[in-house]
Specification:
This protein is α+β, with helices and mostly antiparallel strands. It folds into three domains: 160 residues, Up-down Bundle (Four Helix Bundle (Hemerythrin (Met), subunit A)), CATH 1.20.120; 184 residues, paralog of FGE (formylglycine-generating enzyme), CATH 3.90.1580; 59 residues, no CATH class. The strands form five sheets. A four-stranded mixed beta sheet has the order 12-11-10-13.
């Protein structure tokens, strides 16, 4: 069955959607090339950590998923290389095993993803696409653009784990505004119902759906993410050595893993240093802390006499407009992110100082809810009421349950196409290689 590429009948609407798709796919591919091009083939093939795939696996996996969903499922094409499908099935082979597979060498992987993309662009120019559900609003194309950007973030994580000379370079984030140091430590988010999730965002993924009403009691939330300076106070006060701040599971992990500071931090005399994409530098006190696990975030919050926000609290602070009573797409409104709103898209290789991006401020007064660092929240990753797995169970459904904690808001490594006020990320509470930080909350009334 074929349908128009957009639900509207206007030529302008069709052209606008096609342009958006092409722009999103091209931006993702430019980034992929920037992450795989600067390193030699041995670095592409090497596994830099058992937590991550070789970069060359991510590269070919990007092409394989694009072929599967756009050329085969949407375009009805025959498989180009069916023999490689099992090699790039993320559920068939865990990351630790992938270096042992007969993967496409770098040159072949590059040719494969290039050929797939060429055929996809031909498909995009066709007046009709197959599969009514997948093609509605260009969803399948949007899903693939998000998929590639998510793997680009994964490859950026691998670059951070990589040992060697720096190969990635970006300018530092802009200086924070003059009022950054004068911001209140916390903001109040009034209680009451709000609309969580979405049923209208064309490229939203299944775990963001459907929109539903949630009643949240009033609470206080940190105006900005917790900074390195604030986290250093926790370390200096013996926070890693005091079991009372940690949950039982968190304390057991802290002991077994020998945690003493965020990942990539070392101490030389009285100075704390960090390694960031091959550069060793003093820990900047004003930046949001990054590379901490859920358990570390939870312990810090307890030490401060506070707690981590729930997922619904976080989303209400980020999206709810108390004047109109509606939920925005982003803290600043419904418009797509611009550089003045948030630190996204690998424009910088670090978080911006706390208090930055006043134009991205939420109605609650909180800043940097989008971009800079993924923020751990206290909620398990669970489906919303009325959830339907689509277009495949393995994107979300198989991860639901108490094993995974939710992260919200994106990081400097996230592209805008894969980051919005409803977007949900999740990971094991022990994970630290991800670009994860947090902010704290407390119960209370104004």
């Amino acid at each position: 069955m074929t349908v128009p590429i957009d639900d509207t009948s206007s030529a302008a609407g069709t052209a606008g959607l096609t342009e958006r798709i092409a722009r999103s796919l091209e931006r993702a591919r430019t980034r992929t090339q920037g992450l795989t091009g600067p390193v030699e083939d041995p670095d592409l093939i090497r596994q830099h950590s058992p937590l991550m795939s070789p970069l060359v696996w991510d590269l070919a996996h990007i092409g394989n998923q694009e072929e599967l969903w756009l050329l085969r499922n949407l375009g009805g094409r025959e498989p180009m290389h069916p023999e490689i499908d099992p090699l790039y099935d993320a559920f068939e082979h865990p990351r630790a095993e992938r270096p042992t597979l007969p993967l496409l060498p770098p040159d072949q992987a590059r040719r494969y993803v290039h050929e797939v993309r060429g055929r996809v662009m031909d498909l995009l120019e066709q007046p009709r696409w197959g599969d009514e559900e997948l093609s509605r609003g260009g969803f399948a194309f949007g899903m693939i653009a998000q998929h590639e950007q998510q793997h680009d973030e994964t490859m950026l994580i691998t670059h951070q784990l990589r040992v060697g000379e720096p190969v990635l370079h970006r300018p530092a984030p802009p200086a924070p505004p003059a009022d950054a140091l004068a911001l209140p430590a916390e903001v109040f988010v009034p209680g009451g119902p709000f609309t969580m999730g979405t049923s209208a965002e064309a490229w939203a993924l299944d775990n963001e759906r459907p929109a539903h009403e949630v009643d949240v009691a009033g609470f206080w939330l940190d105006t900005t993410p917790v900074t390195n300076g604030g986290y250093l106070e926790f370390i200096a006060d013996g926070g890693y050595d005091e079991p009372r701040w940690w949950s039982q599971a968190g304390w057991e992990h802290r002991q077994n893993a020998g945690l003493f500071a965020p990942l990539y931090w070392t101490r030389e005399g009285e100075q704390w240093l960090r390694r960031r994409f091959g550069v060793v530098e003093p820990v900047p006190a004003a930046e949001p802390v990054v590379h901490v696990s859920y358990y570390e975030a939870e312990a810090y919050a307890a030490w401060k006499g506070r707690r981590l926000p729930t997922e619904s609290e976080w989303e209400k602070a980020a999206r709810h407009d108390p004047v109109s009573g509606r939920s925005r797409r982003y803290p600043w409104g419904d418009d797509d992110p611009l550089p003045q709103h948030a630190n996204l898209g690998q424009a910088h290789l670090q978080p911006a100082a706390a208090g930055s991006y006043p134009e991205g401020e939420a109605p609650s007064g909180a800043r940097q809810l989008i971009g800079d660092v993924w923020e751990w929240v206290s909620s398990d990753f669970l489906p919303y009421p009325g959830f339907v797995a689509w277009p495949y169970r393995e994107y979300s459904e198989v991860f639901f349950g108490p094993d995974y904690k939710v992260l919200r808001g994106g990081s400097f490594a996230v592209d805008p196409v894969a980051c919005r006020g409803t977007f949900r990320n999740w990971d094991y509470p022990i994970r630290r290689q991800i670009f994860s930080g947090f902010r704290t909350a407390r119960d209370g009334v104004l």
